[in-house]
Specification:
70% helix, globular, 4 strands, 3% strand, single chain, 4-stranded mixed beta sheet, mainly alpha, Zincin-like
């Protein structure tokens, strides 16, 4: 895990300032994993190993850069209208993985002694999503032309991925027309200048011929009846994402001011009311949702978030305790429990929970913030400075990261794992500072 985080720090040190962030939400990630599971199984991929990552970017795009991660833009998720459409995107990207398209590219990068894996994916995200291919090239230490080879799929690969993706959807019992519907969203992109195209049309070569080929493969099949379970998880992921990213007034206008009757509507209203600082209505909405699904850990997790941000530490601790009981392996739920323990005046308990979360997930800046506070409250200033340094590094605040990492290195036992982590941050911060000169 330390080796992974060290690679991640070096990649982040080379990222441009405008690189978009990863959106972390256990509820949304769980919903996406439910949608992906039958598709990944049909592709022969492990659903426990493959992870769907949401990037905070309004443009429409999706891409893969290794065997374990599929990146979806928030703008793409919000634009689609059915579960089958989103599953078709996952099927297409899974086909690139199963077809070895990215493996061949990454093998070439490894032979060039550059960084690959999830760290590379985070670095390339800025360029692959339309921010400029040269940014990804800089992060990898390769030229822009090489970056284009890495991001962009050939038409032959796209054709193969289309055929395989459709086969996965049929095998999984998903309506293949969802595939054609998504391609239809992009069919006119090639008529636009590259500056106006959605990034998907650059990383995935598109044409009317490709859409026609997919329709020919579908043939005379009739549209399948909707999968109610898939529709639920799609509506939940999209609904919660929209509630957090769009104006609360828009969410309330769409759902109605009166408390809704289904759990997704109530969840969306709870988020909207919370963002409007209406704690009473937010709690009423989330409590109503929990009454409908009392064993849903992510509703209790959202209640904990609402309560802790409304300064009800006792109530938040109870909510997060229940959430962690229902989802004991979810790192974000466990980090939320640590946050509540800290707010309730139990920093030692918070350290135990937050270290559990950090050990499995090194890229959660909120958990690192809370961990730094908990260590400071228990007088462990070396560990506090280290957590703070790692948090600043994830945020790209390299000067602050270097200062705190240097302080941590002076306080921690020389040669310890924590001291080595501090050295990783110091090295990455020095590299980042040189890049700016």
């Amino acid at each position: 895990m330390r080796r992974f985080f060290a690679a991640l720090l070096w990649i982040l040190a080379a990222l441009p300032a405008q690189a978009q962030s990863i959106l972390r939400d256990g509820d949304i990630e769980h919903a996406l994993s439910e949608l992906a599971r039958p598709i990944l199984a049909a592709a022969g991929l492990s659903s426990s190993r493959s992870r769907i990552i949401v990037l905070h970017d309004a443009q429409m795009n999706a891409f893969v850069l290794d065997r374990d991660h599929i990146f979806l833009h928030s703008g793409l998720i919000l634009r689609l209208s059915t579960a089958a459409q989103l599953q078709s995107v996952i099927a297409h990207e899974a086909a690139h993985i199963a077809g070895g398209h990215m493996t061949r590219r990454l093998d070439n990068i490894r032979r060039a002694n550059t960084i690959s894996g999830l760290g590379a994916a985070l670095a390339i995200a800025a360029a692959a999503s339309g921010g400029g291919e040269a940014a990804g090239g800089l992060a990898l230490g390769v030229r822009s032309s090489a970056a284009r080879v890495l991001f962009g799929h050939t038409r032959a690969e796209e054709s193969a991925a289309d055929a395989s993706g459709l086969a996965y959807m049929r095998r999984a019992g998903v309506d293949p027309y969802g595939y054609a519907d998504v391609l239809g969203l992009f069919k006119d992109q090639e008529l636009l200048s590259t500056t106006r195209q959605d990034p998907y049309s650059r990383t995935h070569p598109l044409s009317r011929d490709r859409l026609n080929a997919v329709m020919a493969q579908i043939g005379t099949e009739t549209r399948r009846d909707p999968d109610l379970t898939a529709d639920y998880w799609f509506a939940r992921a999209q609904g919660k994402l929209a509630a957090f990213l769009r104006a609360p007034a828009v969410t309330l206008r769409q759902t109605g001011q009166a408390l809704g009757k289904d759990d997704i509507t109530l969840l969306r209203q709870a988020v909207a009311f919370h963002r409007q600082s209406n704690a009473t209505k937010a709690r009423q909405a989330i409590d109503a949702a929990i009454r409908l699904r009392p064993s849903d850990p992510y509703l209790h997790d959202l209640k904990g978030q609402i309560l802790i941000e409304s300064r009800d530490a006792k109530g938040a601790l109870a909510a997060y305790t229940e959430a962690s009981r229902l989802a004991p392996k979810d790192t974000q739920v466990i980090a939320g429990l640590g946050r509540a323990q800290l707010a309730a005046g139990n920093p030692k308990g918070a350290i135990q929970s937050l270290e559990r979360a950090r050990a499995a997930d090194t890229s959660d800046p909120t958990a690192l913030r809370d961990l730094g506070t908990a260590y400071a409250q228990t007088g462990q200033m070396g560990q506090a400075s280290l957590a703070t340094a790692e948090r600043y590094a994830l945020a790209g605040r390299w000067k602050d990261a270097g200062i705190n990492a240097t302080r941590a290195a002076g306080l921690l036992p020389r040669g310890s794992s924590a001291w080595l982590r501090a050295q990783d941050v110091i090295s990455a911060a020095e590299h980042a500072q040189k890049q700016k000169k």
